[in-house]
Automatic annotation (TrEMBL):
One Gene Ontology molecular-function label: UDP-glucosyltransferase activity
Entry protein name: Glycosyltransferase
EC number(s) recorded for this UniProt protein: 2.4.1.-
Stated family: Belongs to the UDP-glycosyltransferase family.
Length: 496
């Protein structure tokens, strides 16, 4: 709110640049866009946030918050044509898809929002100045063209991973790679990096992806710039290269999650938590500062049941406190049975298990947390960076392997658990590739008092401080938000 007060009398506020935000309906993409909406509104812009009934109910806490605080955010709730595109009624988010083979149908249903959205925007005053669209919504380019306004893309990531995939696309690097163990180099990438094909970003294996990817890349190429949930002090080298290689202007406006500083907004992110938040805080309060490892793999990762059990045994063997978020649920009843068979009882004095949705930032930013075992989704990664804690990296698929390299090799704030294969999204797997010993070793390495761990802790803390400074008044991201609003406002005035 301080930002909105500071800007109430500024020329920015009086012109009210109007942003239309179109998030991808997936937790990892929608949650940061709610933060973006809030930040833009707090800095004096008008925001329209596109959503659908099921997604609106998931972000109810955020909607209530904006109403209570009078933020200038409107929600455009459009019917989501799930059934029309062969999806079950109410299947309005990527994490609700029963099979990854349905991803194409899901994307087609999203694309069908184009005409209703255009019609809705024609009635809006002030008319839109700019669309910020998830990169996967290639069809929003048509909407922007209709209104003669810029379309900026948001990909939900930092600069590091997208730089890799732009180089892959530019040089067609993967086309002739047959050997799955071949290490690929990335010409023009500013620091040494090698990955096998299956660990490269952009190679998610879903039906119809190649065709979609072409639309997405074409749309991205024509965009007027990129809004990034990162900050200059974290990875300016890679952001600079990204700008150079893509020829796109980048506005780094993150870490956007930092706009959530009070209890209510922290617990209102994403789904409703499956555990009482106060109880969770009480448990954390009872633990020594910096002693607990938080273990969570985001909203989409599908860890095999046997692998989950092995992970649990590793946590137990480490003898260190932990909070473990498990999303096995009905899908993997064997995990529940195993937990009930004695595990929960054996670790009850030092392990908190959360089944389903956890209030992640509330937990991560608690002083008891000293380490984060993460799947390296970008939101989780940057939330961990903000918490100023080191990480154990356990990537599953897509750009997560590249984020792991950023954390381990560049920031030097994490250790690898040592993942062998790729756990594709929605692909049922049964093999165990990370042993309990590997888990125990990684936890010990990160949480012990040794020099290496201390060094990592110090570096992580420093990045946490830099992250906060970036979004504080006068910081790099704070200033970029103002510049973004100004530039889009000026363009709209010049053309209107
Ligand atoms: N999240 C959460 N509780 C959970 C799981 C995830 O609050 O139980 C949030 C997490 O804080 C992050 C987002 O959901 O903001 C997940 O995004 P990320 O990019 O880390 O991973 P994805 O789910 O897209 O793989």
């Amino acid at each position: 709110a301080s930002a909105s007060q500071a800007l109430t009398d500024s020329p920015i506020a009086s012109k009210r640049t109007h942003f239309v935000l179109v998030p991808l309906m997936a937790q990892g993409h929608t949650i940061p866009m709610t933060d973006m909406a809030r930040l833009l509104a707090e800095h004096g812009a008008q925001v329209s946030f596109v959503t659908t009934p099921v997604n609106a109910s998931r972000i109810e806490g955020f909607i209530n918050y904006t109403e209570a605080t009078g933020l200038t955010i409107q929600f455009i709730k459009l019917h989501f044509p799930a059934v029309e595109f062969g999806l079950p009624d109410g299947c309005e988010s990527a994490d609700m898809l029963q099979s990854r083979d349905l991803f194409k149908n899901f994307m087609m249903a999203c694309a069908a929002l184009r005409d209703p959205l255009t019609a809705h925007l024609h009635q809006q005053r002030p008319s839109p100045s700019c669309i910020i669209s998830d990169m996967l919504h290639w069809w929003t380019a048509d909407v922007a063209r209709e209104f003669g306004i810029p379309r900026l893309t948001f990909n939900g990531f930092c600069g590091f991973a997208p730089l890799v995939w732009h180089i892959i696309a530019r040089d067609n690097l993967l086309e002739h790679v047959e050997d799955e163990n071949e290490l690929i180099n990335f010409p023009g990438f500013p620091t040494p990096l090698q990955l096998t094909k299956e660990r490269c970003p952009g190679s998610i294996s879903v039906y119809g992806w190649d065709e979609m990817r072409k639309n997405i890349y074409d749309g991205d190429r024509k965009s007027a710039g990129v809004v990034m949930n990162s900050f200059q002090e974290l990875e300016s080298l890679y952001i600079g290269s990204f700008e150079q290689i893509t020829g796109k202007k980048v506005w780094t406006v993150g870490p956007m999650c930092l706009c959530n500083q009070d209890f209510n907004t922290m617990v209102a992110r994403g789904n409703k938590a499956s555990m009482d938040e106060t109880q969770c805080l009480q448990w954390l309060d009872s633990m020594k500062p910096g002693s607990v490892t938080f273990v969570s793999f985001g909203s989409l990762a599908c860890t095999a049941p046997q692998q989950l059990i092995e992970l649990g045994l590793g946590l137990e063997a480490s003898r260190k406190p932990f909070v473990w978020v498990i999303k096995a649920g009905d899908k993997f009843p064997q995990v529940e049975e195993w937990l009930a068979e004695g595990f929960e009882e054996r670790v009850k004095d030092r392990g908190l298990i959360i089944r389903g949705w956890a209030p992640q930032v509330l937990i991560l930013w608690h002083k008891a947390i000293g380490g984060f075992m993460t799947h390296c989704g970008w939101n989780s990664t940057i939330e961990g960076i903000c918490a100023g804690i080191p990480m154990i990296t356990w990537p599953h698929f897509a750009e997560q392997f590249v984020n792991e390299r950023l954390v381990v090799d560049v920031l030097k704030t994490g250790v690898e658990v040592g993942v062998k294969g790729v756990t594709q999204w929605g692909h049922k797997q049964n093999e165990v590739t990370v042993t309990r010993d590997a888990v125990e070793t990684a936890v010990s390495k990160l949480m012990d008092e040794g020099e290496a761990a201390q060094e990592m802790r110090t570096r992580a803390k420093e990045f946490g401080v830099k992250a906060r400074k970036a979004l504080d008044e006068g910081g790099s991201s704070y200033n970029n938000i103002n510049l973004l609003i100004q530039e889009m406002g000026n363009r709209a005035n010049a053309s209107g």
